[in-house]
Design brief:
Layout: H1 3-23, H2 30-37, H3 41-47, H4 51-65, H5 68-77, H6 81-109, H7 114-141, H8 150-160, H9 163-172, H10 177-192
Length: 195
């Protein structure tokens, strides 16, 4: 891929992220993105053949811009399942406020917008994969609480970390980021770690 193609692609993705945050999902059509970037609608389609692909790639682009892999490194390299659990919740509690503008736009759009639903599903599958890796680590160590199967624990952990739960606790209940992280770690440890 030439540097010009990469630059144009990045401009389109930056404009999409900007439009999602600014307009909370309204007016984020291919034509709107083309107008925002100052390129033709046809050029947008050359880089992203469908709006679904554009929205999925925009959410992944945001993760890349926020250096997701580096932020996940402490959890991925932790020596124990419980340490992985704590680091993952710390990462998530710090990360949600940074992605919330785009996440809430996609979440609001998903019921009536197939492209947004596909982008939301893509990100939620990534979150679920992270939850599964942590529960699997606990299970392999023999430290998963006995009442759980790994699948049930993954389901519950993934649900516990939902954006809606974060909204309720931080926006409705007034929890600080620090409180969210602390109490979610406590809840997760008590729920999933043996003893």
């Amino acid at each position: 891929m030439s540097s010009e193609v990469k630059e144009t692609r990045a401009r389109i993705l930056k404009a999409t992220v900007f439009m999602l945050e600014k307009h909370q999902g309204r007016g984020v059509r291919m034509n709107d993105i083309a107008n925002q970037t100052g390129i033709s609608r046809q050029a947008v389609y050359l880089h992203f053949p469908s709006r679904t692909e554009l929205l999925i790639e925009a959410t992944r682009f945001l993760d890349e811009q926020l250096d997701l892999d580096a932020r996940l490194a402490p959890s991925r390299t932790a020596k124990t399942g419980m340490a992985r659990l704590d680091f993952y919740i710390e990462f998530w509690g710090n990360y949600i406020p940074e992605i919330y503008g785009v996440a809430s736009a996609i979440l609001q759009m998903q019921d009536n917008d197939k492209a947004a639903a596909a982008a939301w599903q893509d990100r939620m599958l990534a979150l679920r994969d992270g939850c599964h890796a942590i529960i699997d680590a606990l299970h392999k160590e023999g430290n998963l609480a006995g009442e759980w199967t790994p699948k049930q624990a993954t389901d519950a952990f993934w649900s516990m970390l939902s954006i809606r739960n974060w909204e309720n606790l931080t926006q409705e209940c007034g929890w600080s980021k620090k409180q969210y992280i602390h109490y979610m770690q406590l809840l997760a440890r008590r729920s999933f770690v043996k003893g």
